[in-house]
Write a structure and sequence with these properties.
CATH class: Alpha Beta
Mean pLDDT: 89
Structural class: alpha+beta
Order of helices and strands: EHEEEEHEH
CATH architecture: 2-Layer Sandwich
Number of helices: 3
Strand content: 25-35%
Number of domains: 1
Radius of gyration: 17 Å
Oligomer: single chain
CATH topology: Alpha-Beta Plaits
Strand order of the largest sheet: 2-5-1-6
Length: 113
């Protein structure tokens, strides 16, 4: 079992969700987050001085999948989220120790679905 965490640009969310649907990956959680990567937020010139702005709006997508679906999920996210520009985001794939379905009490890969 793996937990995939993707940080993407907000305007790419619908494209990513559509690609995940095509890959038959339906279980996901989406959150609005703030952050910055190497670009360190927005840089602008104000009264002749270079100033770095606040954190950038991003979307955090979390997907718990069984091993056979990891590559499909990652490829779908990359295909839909990639613009080729700075700030496209990151994907993290973590080992998932366990999963519990509250309604039925199922555990492990069965609980993920």
């Amino acid at each position: 079992m793996k937990l995939i965490i993707a940080i993407i640009q907000p305007h790419k969310l619908e494209d990513v969700l559509q690609e995940l649907d095509k890959a038959e990956i339906y279980l996901r959680t989406v959150s609005s987050v703030l952050g910055c990567g190497r670009q360190k937020g927005r840089t602008q010139v104000y009264r002749g001085r270079k100033e770095t702005g606040n954190l950038l709006k991003k979307v955090r997508l979390e997907i718990a999948v069984n091993e056979p679906y990891v590559d499909q999920a990652v490829k779908a996210i990359i295909k839909a989220a990639k613009t080729g520009g700075i700030g496209d985001g990151k994907i993290f794939v973590l080992d998932l120790a366990d999963c519990y379905r509250i309604r039925t009490g199922e555990t492990g890969s069965v609980a993920i679905g």
